[in-house]
User: Fold this.
Amino acid sequence: MAEIIQRDGTWAFDGSTVRITPGLHRSVPLFRQTYGEIAVPLEAISGIVFEPERKRGRLRMRLREGADPLLQATGGRLPDPADPYRLVVDIDRSGVAEYVAEEIRHALLLDQIPGDPTKTYLLPGPPVPVSVRSSDGTVSFDGTQVRIDWSDSSDRVKRATGPRIIGIGDLLQVEWLPNSGYEDGFLRFVTRETVFSKLPPEKDPYALDLWGSARRDLLTALVATAVTARLPHPSTRTGSDYAERPRLAASVPPQADHHDVLLRRLRELGELHRDGVLTDEEFAMTKAAVLRGF
Assistant:
């Protein structure tokens, strides 16, 4: 057993699994504490390195592409302190950190773990049901459907449409960008009907606009990860980078269906405008965004 215990957390390696437990100190980000313990199988790891610095160092673990739904959902955008595969190490424990890293590297060589992308997720992601309250509303996922309940501060267009419920079978992918405190983030659920939509997150009824507490809004990555873990693995989709919208063309409905979707969305906007929910300016702006998207 190779183990290192720090205020930032604990890493323990038993020869086949690295068990990562977040620390309980107030300096440990809420996201890591909420995500909880992660058991990383050796076959999911592509490498590990210890980076010494003058006052403290960092253990960094790299996972194979496609192995972890968390990394797939967040696209490497998690802030460094919230990254569960990074451990801050006190300088007087550098020797222990080097030992742990060396033991994992030795096991990777001994077991001849390949470094190429995986064909399936090797980590399960967070358990369901999971629910997170963000600045734009509350998003929940029970394993079969996503539900968004808008907050009082959500855009009036979103509140007018009521709670949004999306079945897992209707989803193509999840897009997530964190709220940095300087720029807004978003959590968007891309369906067959909305794949070409260009609505901004604050107007998109399939997206949460993350503009409030960066610490709290970061928790939406839990839902993004839980949903991503239950979608088809990226290796089963056309193209190597599924995040690019042009590569979704093979998965979306034919052009006739696009036309039906467009008419339906325009009809919904017209009803909101007639009912006085949308002002003339809001109606014109939202209609233009929908037409650009199609």
Notes: The first strand starts at residue 2 and ends at 6. The chain has eight helices and 14 strands. The mean pLDDT is 89. The longest helix spans residues 255-274.
